[in-house]
Write a structure and sequence with these properties.
Elements: H1 17-33, E1 44-47, H2 73-83, E2 89-92, H3 104-114, E3 117-122, H4 129-135, E4 139-145, H5 151-157, H6 163-177, H7 180-183, E5 186-193, H8 201-211, E6 215-220, H9 226-229, H10 237-254, E7 257-260, E8 264-265, E9 273-275, H11 280-283, E10 284-287, E11 292-294, E12 305-306, H12 312-316, H13 319-329, E13 344-346, E14 353-354, H14 363-366
Helix pairs in contact: 3-4, 8-10
């Protein structure tokens, strides 16, 4: 089962409802049996509709001046024709702002027609008016990137954003989605933990309750430059563990769910962690804006195929995917899977977990291109290797 989708939120009245549940059942069976060849299509897709963004956040992986490329409408329509009848959930873009893509309303309308749920991460500046109208019928999970509990911190980090405007848009989104998706739609504030904002984490939980968000997510910074390495405090638990503990207490008091950086475990793997077979090779896929099919967002430049040159199912059961599935089945995952946090599962949220601070620093600081991510249920950052000249 894919923990990142919610089939119970599907519209049972949509004509494609039964096809989606049948496809999910086959994917679950293939995952349980660790089959190399899958007779189901992905249940969730990350569709990289655009790299563009209307902000210039200090910790962004891609500098704003290099965020130029966007997906062609025809490519989106091709993906929809092939995958949307069985697709449960779609996440549009994870290295850009989905709402700046001119075809975003058309994507939402197509998703609504096929009964596909929306998992949206947004900076929130544009989620109003006709764009909120487009999101409302299909939203299942709306995450607002929100890196400060006051205007000064928020606007310093999220350059070009207005704290007041985003708060207003969170309120309106939460109001509009109340009761949607069988009461399962979630509005969240999502913080990147920095040295300069960690003290505001408990106040962010209070703010979430005030403006209607039901969840706060906060995870350690992935640094991409030596300058941002100074903001990483993954290796300084004395700075963040007390804030995590306080945020949990506040969340329980005000009724806000939290998904936070795991408490640090000093030493060996906790008995609260257990080996896990990653669900992604059986349940999810990434499609880049040029049609490239990526087996994971930590893809090392390896492409499984391209939706513009062959049916998706050919790549889905091609050499790369079969190699990944066999690696998991044999208990020796290779490729980008080796050392990934998805190889471990937690018994419960917020149990102590292994954490390697080096993994959060820029390659220059690590002295190597990649290092293992030794903590539970987290992946490496989006890999730009081999991607349009990166």
């Amino acid at each position: 089962m894919d923990p990142y989708i919610d089939p119970a939120a599907l519209d049972a009245g949509n004509p494609w409802y039964e096809a989606k549940l049948s496809n999910l059942s086959r994917a679950d069976a293939a995952h349980a049996g660790m089959a190399a060849v899958v007779d189901a299509l992905p249940c969730k897709v990350v569709l990289q509709t655009t790299d563009r963004c209307n902000l210039d956040c200090v910790m962004c992986q891609i500098p704003r001046e290099r965020k130029r490329a966007s997906m062609d409408l025809g490519l989106m329509e091709r993906v929809a024709d092939e995958l949307f009848p069985t697709l449960i959930e779609l996440h549009p873009t994870n290295v850009g702002e989905a709402l700046v893509w001119p075809h975003f309303p058309a994507l939402c309308a197509t998703m609504a027609r096929y009964g596909v749920l929306l998992d949206l991460t947004t900076n929130g500046m544009l989620l109003e008016g006709r764009l909120l109208d487009a999101v409302e019928p299909i939203a299942r999970d709306v995450k607002f990137s929100f890196d400060g509990a006051n205007a000064a911190t928020f606007e310093r980090i999220r350059r070009g954003a207005s704290f007041e405007r985003v708060c207003r848009n969170v309120r309106e989104t939460a109001h509009r989605l109340d009761g949607q998706r069988n009461g399962r739609a979630v509005v969240a504030l999502q913080m990147t933990i920095l040295r300069s904002n960690v003290d505001e984490l408990p106040d962010l939980v209070r703010l979430a309750a005030e403006i209607g968000a039901g969840r706060v997510k906060a995870y350690h910074l992935f640094s991409f430059t030596p300058e941002m390495d100074r903001e990483s405090i993954a290796g300084e638990p004395a700075l963040w563990e007390p804030r995590v503990a306080e945020a949990l207490r506040v969340g329980e008091k005000v009724g806000v769910d939290l998904q936070l950086a795991e408490p640090l475990l000093r030493g060996a793997v906790s008995e609260d962690l257990r080996p896990n077979v990653c669900h992604l090779p059986w349940h999810e896929s990434w499609i880049d804006l040029d049609g490239a099919i990526l087996a994971c967002h930590s893809h090392r430049g390896d492409v499984a195929g391209n939706v513009m040159s062959e049916p998706f199912l050919v790549a889905w059961n091609g050499d790369l995917y079969k190699r990944l599935r066999r690696g998991w089945a044999e208990g020796r995952p290779g490729w980008s899977c080796a050392g990934c946090g998805m190889a471990w599962a937690k018994s419960a949220e917020h149990v102590p977990s292994p954490l390697d601070p080096e993994s959060f620093l820029s390659p220059a600081a690590r002295g190597i291109a990649r290092s293992p991510v030794r903590w539970s249920a987290r992946m490496r950052p989006f890999d730009l290797a081999g991607r349009r000249g990166e």
